[in-house]
Amino acid sequence: MSDRLERLATLVLPGFAILLLAVPACAADVKALLKDADRFRLTEESLRVETEAKVYKAGVLDKTRLYNVYVKPGRRSLVVFRSPSERGQKLLMLADDFWLVLPGSQRPLRITPLQKLLGDASTGDVASLAWSEDYDGTIEGEQLVEGIPCIKLDITGQRKGVSYPRIVLYLARDGHYPVQAELYVASDKLAKLATFKLGVEGGRRVVSTMILVDRLQKDRRTELNYLARTRKTLPDEYYNPAFLVRADIEN
Amino acid sequence: MNRAAFFVAVLAAAPAAVADDPVADLSYKTRLVAEHHDLRGDSVFAPGLPLTGFGRDRGRLEQEVRGRLGPASLLLTGTVFSQEGQTPAARLLANEAYVDFRAGENHFTIGKKILSGDVAFGFRPIDVIQRELRLQVLPPALEGVPNLTWERFTKDTAWSVVLANPGHGQRGDPKRDGSLTVRHYRRSGGTDVHAVARISDRYRLETGAALSAVPDESLELHASFLVQRRGERLTPLAEPATTSALLDPDRAFGVTSLNTPRKALAGFTWTWESGWSVIGETWWDGTAPTAADWQTLAAQARRRNALLGLPGVPAAAVAGSLAASTRLFQAPGVSRRTALAHLGWTDPAGGGWTASLDILRTLEDGGWTATAAVGWEADRVRFDAGMRRFGGKPDSVYRLLPERGILFAGVSLAF
C-alpha cells in the first residue's frame, strides 16, 4: 500500500508542481506579456531607431549594414538604408503591405511579404520591433533558458504580412524581457534562433542587441545592434508610398 | 527657361528647404563594366555594320557620388567610356541635383530629379516623364528630368503636378520635351492605384492608369494602361522604294504619326520562401514597329545588298544606307506584342548571391532574347556577370539584330 502511495506521489507531485508554477503565468494575459516585452525594444510609441546589422559567416565578419528605422503606431515602419552599398534604398511596411524603393529607379515598388525576408539582414527583422500588434497565442509553461527562468509562449501571426507566422518566445519570468525566440517560416521550418542582450539607455533597460542564428545555414549569424533610439514622430504622409521618393526624411 | 537659369533657381530655392540638414552626407561608388558584343556574321546589314556600334566591345568606368550637400540631393557621375575602334571619351553628369521642400501642407521639388513611374518590370506604359529604357544589361544610372513639382499628400493619397523641362517645346528625345503632368496615387484597400495625365506638343494628351495588389503573401499582380492622343512609330522606308531612296541614308527610316495608340501590360510576381521568384508579363505597345515593318526592313536590306557592285552605285552609299536603317533597332519598343518570363533567385540565407534567367518573346514575329545573369555582393563589393543571346524566326526583330549576343561583367565598390 505504501509502495502504491509512493508511486502515485512520484507521478502526481511533479505534475502538481508544474501546475502550481504555470498558474501565475497562465493567469497573465499573453497580449500583456507581449506588450511588456515590446517595451524593451520599442521604448516609445513613435521613434527613430539607428540599427547596425553585422553579418558573420563561420565566425568571421562578412558584412556591416546600417539602417534608420522610423516606427509609428498602426504597424507602420519606414526603413532607410544607410550603408554606402545600399544608399538610396527605402522599405516601407504598412500593416500587411510592403514597398521598396531602389536607387536605380526611384519609384515605390510593391513587394510581397516573402520578398522582404530576403537579403543580407532580412529587412523584416530590422523593421519589426513589436510582437503585441501582430501576434497572439498561448503560454506553454516555464523553462530555464541560459539559466534564466522564462515563460514560454507559442505565438502565431494574426496577419498575413508577418515575417514569421509562428514564434516560440521565451520571456524572463521576472521583468518579461525577451530572452530567446525561435522564428518559424510559413512551412513551419525553424528558420532562425534569436537571442536578446540587454543594455541600459536613458536609465532604463532595453534590448541593445538581437542575435539571429540561421538554422538553415548554421554558419551564419546576424547581430542587430540598436545603436540609438530617439523619440521622433513623422507626419502620416511620410508613410505614404508615394512620399518615399522625396528626400524630406533622408536619402 | 535655359539650363543655367534653371540651376540658379535650384540654388536659390535651397535655403528654403529643411534647415537642419547636415552640410554633406555623401557616399561614393566606383563601377567598372565590360561588354563583349558578338557580331552576327550572316547579318543582312553586314556591309553597313562598320559604320555602327554593333559588334563592338565596350567598357566604362563610372564614379558615382550620391547623397546630400546641404539641402540639395545629388547624384553625380563621371564616366570614362571606351568602345572598340574609338578613342575613349569622358563625361561628367549631374544625374540628379534637386531640392525637396515644403510650405505648410504643400510639397515642392525644384531641380533635376529621376521621376520614374509605373508598376511593371519589363515595360512601363505610364512612365511618361522619365521614359526609362527597360531590360538593358548593367545600365548606367538614370539621368533625371529638370522639373518644378508641386505635391500634396494625405495618409493614402497623393497628387502631383510636374512641369518637366520648363521652356522646352518638342526636342529630339521625347524625354527632353517640355510637358505638364498630373499624377495621382491612391491606396485603396490592399491595392495601389496610379493615374496619370500628361500634355506635351509631341503626344498631346496621354492618359493612363496602373494597379498593383498583393492578394497573397507570395503573389503580386499588376497591370498598366496608357492611351496617347497622338503617337509616333519608327518605320522603314515606305514602299514602293526607288533605288535612289534606298541609297539615301536620310530616308532609311521615318517616323509615322499614329492616332490614339495604346499601350497595356498585365503581369504577376510569385515569390517562394526558398528565395526563388517568377515574374510573368505580357504587353501590347501600339507605338512599336510591326512584324511587317521588320520584314520590310529585311527586304530592303537585301535589295541594298543586291545593289553592291552595280555600276554607278558606290559601295559607301550602300553601307551608309544599311547602317542608317539599323536605327530602327533603337526604337523604345521593338515589338507590339511581347511576353516576358523572369526567373530569379536570391540567397535566402543572405549569402549575397543572386541569379536570374529572362526569356523575352516577341509574339508577332517569333523572336526571342535569353539573358542569364549571376551576382554576388559582399560588404562593399558587388560582382555581376552574364550573357544575353538573340534569336528567333527569320526576319523576326531579334533574328535580324546584327548581334548574336552579349557577354557582360561588372564590378562595383561602394565607400
Can you describe what's shown?
The complex is a heterodimer of chains A (251) and B (415). By secondary structure, chain A is an alpha+beta fold. Chain A has a domain at 47-83 and 112-232: outer membrane lipoprotein receptor (LolB), chain A (Clam). Chain A is built from three helices and 13 strands, in the order ααββββββαβββββββ. Chain A has helices spanning 2-27, 30-38, 123-127; strands at residues 47-57, 60-72, 76-81, 90-94, 97-101, 108-111, 135-145, 148-157, 166-172, 178-184, 190-201, 204-214, 220-231. In chain A, strands 6-5-4-3-2-1-13-12-11-10-9-8-7 form a 13-stranded antiparallel sheet. The radius of gyration of chain A is 20 Å and the shape is globular. Residues 11-27 of chain A have low confidence and may be disordered. Chain B is mainly beta. Chain B has a single domain (3-414), classed as Porin, CATH 2.40.160. Chain B has five helices and 20 strands. In chain B, the strands form two sheets. Chain B has an 18-stranded antiparallel β-barrel. Chain B has a two-stranded antiparallel sheet with strand order 12-13. In chain B, a hairpin with a 2-residue loop joins strand 2 (58-69) and strand 3 (72-83). In chain B, helix 3 (291-307) runs antiparallel to helix 4. The chains are: A alpha+beta (251), B mainly beta (415). Chains A and B meet through strand 2 and strand 6 of A and strand 1, strand 2, strand 4, strand 5 and strand 7 of B.
